Amino acid sequence: MNKDDLCPVCGMTVDLSVPSVAYHKLYFHFCSSQCRQTFLARPKLYSSGAREEVIKRRVMRLSEAIDEEVAALIISYLTQMMGIKEVVVEGEKVYVIYDLLQITKKQIEEALSEVGIQLGGGWLERLRRGWVYDSEEIELDNLAASPAACCNKPPPGA
Ligand SMILES: [Zn+2]
């Protein structure tokens, strides 16, 4: 394998300690276990090479307003994740811009709850959250099912 390989999910240099994945007789290497999991969910979407970003802007509501120190921690924690472009915290709201092809809202919110950040818990919030999770999964499924947008070169193996 080539250590200069780029991660098929985010385009960064691969980390050789992350186990590779065989797909259609090709071996794929990844920069992180996060990208590996993303690839495994929809390998077809990431194995063709040509790929554009699907930028999402969302607001996540926390159960209470947080102080600057905690806000700084949330920002540095989230921006370390693959696919997160920008994080702004204002009171109890967290504004996140991310590439859906690299990370979903569900993954971001799970990461927040892993570090003990409580999300707003009203029934309407939970309903909205579930709806966004489903719509993102459907969007990714549709992208995986459609042919690559770029036709300059044939897909590998064609
Ligand atoms: Zn990656």
Q: What's the arrangement of secondary structure elements?
A:
Layout: E1 21-23, E2 26-28, H1 33-41, H2 43-47, E3 55-61, H3 68-79, E4 84-90, E5 93-99, H4 105-114, H5 123-145
Antiparallel strand pairs: 1-2, 3-5, 4-5
The chain binds zinc ion (ZN).
The site of zinc ion has 9 residues, from loops.
| Global morphology | globular
In CATH, the architecture of the largest domain is 2-Layer Sandwich
| CATH topology name of the largest domain | Alpha-Beta Plaits
Tell me the β content. Answer: 15-25%
Task: List the helices and strands in order.
Answer: EEHHEHEEHH
Global Rg: 17 Å
CATH classification, class level of the largest domain: Alpha Beta
Listed once per kind, the bound small molecules are: zinc ion
**Average pLDDT number:** 89
Could you please describe the fold and organization of this structure?
The protein contains 5 helices and 5 strands, in the order ββααβαββαα. Strands 3-5-4 form a 3-stranded antiparallel sheet, covered by helices on one side. The two termini are 22 Å apart. The protein is globular and about 50 Å long. A hairpin with a 2-residue loop joins strand 4 (84-90) and strand 5 (93-99). By secondary structure, the chain is of the alpha+beta class. The chain has helices at 33-41, 43-47, 68-79, 105-114, 123-145; strands spanning 21-23, 26-28, 55-61, 84-90, 93-99. It folds into 2 domains: 1-51, no CATH class; 55-121 and 136-144, 2-Layer Sandwich (Alpha-Beta Plaits). The site of zinc ion (ZN) has 9 residues, from loops.
